[in-house]
Design a protein that fits this description.
It contains 9 helices and 14 strands. By secondary structure, the chain is α/β, with parallel strands linked by helices. The longest helix is centred in the N-terminal third of the chain and has 32 residues. The chain is globular and about 50 Å long. The strands form 4 sheets. The protein has a 6-stranded parallel β-sheet, with helices on both faces. Strands 11-14-12-13 form a 4-stranded mixed β-sheet, with helices on both faces. The chain has a two-stranded parallel sheet with strand order 2-10.
């Protein structure tokens, strides 16, 4: 049932049920069903396509500009995990944004810090929680509860960090376990994580691709095909292999981090979680009033979340702090390709925000 996607087997074990791609739901229909409450987003997949040549050129430029920064933050995160965990370490990344980060962090723990580290990738679903079957599997494989550390790419509003905390706490109460429910991320925009390498809204290159930078694995699925003892599901896009950058990207970021490890590792600047949370709340409240948004879930702040909207939702508007910045070049390409209006707000506290179109707008 477990597999390694397009990564080497020693880099990650996906605790996901591989499903056959049955029927995909169009982005427009998926949005209507989600917002009407008829279906949960985890019950549907929209078709993915390989990125266009133009978009891949933007990804390659993003790697040249930002891989070193991401590598440093992976190194910081590994250093923080090393300091906070004794004995063997079990890195549990959250599919999919956490997958490349988990691959790199686990490798750094082994190769730089001399720790025994195993990496699993599991599913977490908003309003449904983390995959309890996957957690039980990890514990049954002999990994101590206190060895587990949850890793993701970034937090936008902190929804998944809060979902993780609630779900793992419920699991601990049910299973009489002691798993730390905190989330470790490269970038925390909402002051919601347990530990972050940065509080900056910057372009994490892996955020701008889908399956082709995450082991060829789809977004996770929790539908009627998944029984209570099954791992959450996914589709494996083997046909995208000619476009895959997953292993190459992780290898490049890890190599950059290992090279930097020969120098002193700069400690992360302490994140003012309260200030980040207040900034997030103030922006969301203001944006809801400014744009007439009734559901806060339709506002996605930060480069990573804004990118997800343009890749797999129905965007209403892309808001940028400035045009022409390297960190938002891919967003401008996507907005042009998908004919999404772009607004400039020089006072934006993030580099980018995407608004999802309400189904009631037609």
């Amino acid at each position: 049932m477990s597999f390694s996607g397009s990564y080497r087997s020693e880099d990650v074990t996906f605790l996901l049920t591989r499903l056959e791609a049955q029927s995909f739901t169009s982005v427009l229909e998926k949005e209507r069903l989600i917002q009407s409450g008829q279906r949960h987003y985890s019950q549907m997949l929209s078709p993915e396509l390989p990125p266009s040549p133009r978009y891949m050129a933007v990804f390659e430029e993003a790697c040249r500009a930002n891989n070193a920064r991401m590598a440093l933050h992976c190194l910081r995160l590994a250093s923080l995990v090393d300091a906070r965990r004794e004995g063997d370490i079990t890195v549990v990344s959250l599919a999919r944004a956490g997958t490349p980060v988990g691959v790199v962090v686990a490798r750094l723990l082994r190769e730089v810090f001399g720790r025994k580290a195993t990496h699993y990738c599991v599913s977490i679903v908003r309003d449904r929680g983390i995959d309890w079957a996957a957690l039980r599997h990890i514990l049954a494989n002999g990994h101590a509860p206190e060895s587990i550390v949850f890793v993701d790419g970034w937090t936008g509003k902190g929804v998944i960090a809060r979902e993780l905390a609630l779900s793992v706490s419920a699991f601990n109460a049910s299973e009489k376990s002691r798993i730390d429910n905190g989330l470790y991320v490269l970038s925390d925009l909402a002051g919601a994580s347990a530990c972050a390498a940065s509080g900056d809204d910057y372009l994490i290159p892996s955020s701008i691709l889908n399956a082709t930078v995450s082991g060829l694995v789809s977004r996770t699925v929790l539908d009627e095909r998944i029984g209570p003892q099954d791992f959450h599901g996914c589709v494996y896009y083997g046909e995208f292999a000619p476009h895959d950058r997953s292993q190459h990207f992780a290898d490049e970021v890890a190599a950059l981090a290992i090279a930097q490890a020969g120098q002193a590792i700069p400690a992360p600047v302490a994140l003012d979680a309260q200030a980040a949370a207040q900034r997030s709340r103030a922006y969301l409240d203001g944006a809801m009033a400014r744009y007439g948004v009734q559901d806060v879930n339709l506002i996605k702040p930060g480069i990573g979340e804004a990118t997800r909207v343009l890749l797999r939702r129905v965007p209403r508007l892309l808001v940028l702090r400035a045009r022409g910045a390297a960190s938002v070049a891919h967003l401008e390409v996507l907005a042009e390709e998908k004919q999404v209006p772009v607004e400039i707000d020089a006072d934006l506290p993030y580099h980018a925000v995407s608004l999802i179109r309400s189904a009631s707008d037609g």
